[in-house]
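# step 3/5: fold
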Amino acid sequence: MRTLIAIIREVANLFVDDGSLAFAILAVAAIAVFLAIMLKASALAVGFVLLGGCAAVLIENVIRTVRRN
């Protein structure tokens, strides 16, 4: 049973290893949803927000990790 719990924790950590990264990606997604639903932005604009926002968050996270190590 302990092995199963350990495996589940490891799999969960694959998805939420860095809480700030997960929060930032959710924030980018929320901004995209706001643009799409509330402001009726085009799909292309929402796509650019998702792509650019996720790329910026990832780059920032990599830079922060490199500085930490």
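# step 4/5: annotate
The chain has a mean pLDDT of 89.
# step 5/5: archive (pending)
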